[in-house]
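Bump. Still looking for Lipoate--protein ligase family protein structure tokens.
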Amino acid sequence: MTTGSDVRAAFTDPAENLAFDEALLRVAPESPVLWLWRNPVCVVVGRGQRIAREVRIEECARDGVPVLRRASGGGTVFHDPGNLNVTLVLPGPTDRPLETLGQVMSAAVDQLGLVPRIGDRGLFVGDAKLCGFAVFRTKGVLLAHSTLLVETSASLVGRYLTSAPPDPRPLDSHRSPVASLAEHGLRPGFPAVEAAVRAAASHLLGTLVPRPPTAAELARQRSLLHTRYHYPSWHADGAQRAA
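Sorry for the wait, here they are.
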């Protein structure tokens, strides 16, 4: 089995979290990397999505909820401290990264006491989505990440995300009913949830050694903040600033 990394890092700015998420991929690690993190309240759209089709813009503006863009594809998600973001970076040829992520999240949720199933772009308990999945691939490395609803209420998610549009397009989010662990009657607390995810990832990927961010990861994060995540046009329409 391989020895990978369990990165322990926390940033208070959601743009810094998104930049670090991508930085973990861009440094091209030679072994698996796991990072567990939480964001303040915000909405995060996929790389090629149109905000007007995905987000209740007036409600976000009224409540001061920022709308940001990530580098991976997939659908729009609501972030707040009540959900856990799980990032897996997998080096080498990995044909089914979302399957690997699904296995990790499914094992963790099973360990916590629910019976999950892997469905369309996410993990479900009954008919309600508990986790959404997305992936971002470079030449030799890929990143798969998930948002696990731990305490966030479904009504809060629906307040800021649009319903499915009547004229669906390929990049639109696939809307599903959602429910958190708490709404399924499970309140283990974040330490227990994180321990379950770490145990599941270690079982599947090999030993994951806790470590702080490397100098290379932090340098790449700063570069990405300059060219993308602190650049308003990136979040508005995906346009980058010249390096």
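The helical segments are 14-26, 51-54, 57-63, 97-112, 154-160, 190-205, 215-229, 232-237.

Edit: fixed formatting.
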